[in-house]
Amino acid sequence: MAAPAAAPSTHAEVKSPMVGTFYASPEPGAKPFVAVGTRVAKGQVLCIIEAMKIMNEIESEVTGVVKEVVATDAHPVEFGQVLFRIDPNG
Asked: How far apart are the first and last CA of the chain?
C-alpha cells in the first residue's frame, strides 16, 4: 500500500533573493525580527541578508503568521533558498 501523499502546503514561502549571510536580528545579541507564531504584515522586515558587506532587509510579501523559520542565524543562504514559511490564513 502506498503512503498517503502529503497535502500541498498553503503557506507562503519567503525565499532569499540573493546569495549571502542570513541574520535573524538587526545586530548581534538583539531580539530576532520575527519568530514562529509572530504575526507579520506585508512589507514588515523579516531578516537581513548580508551580501558584499551590504545589509539587505528582506520584507514579507504577505500578511499572516510565521509558521517556520527555515534559515539558521549567521549562516550562508543561497539564491532561492526558503527562509520562512508564513500562513496567510493564520
From this structure: 34
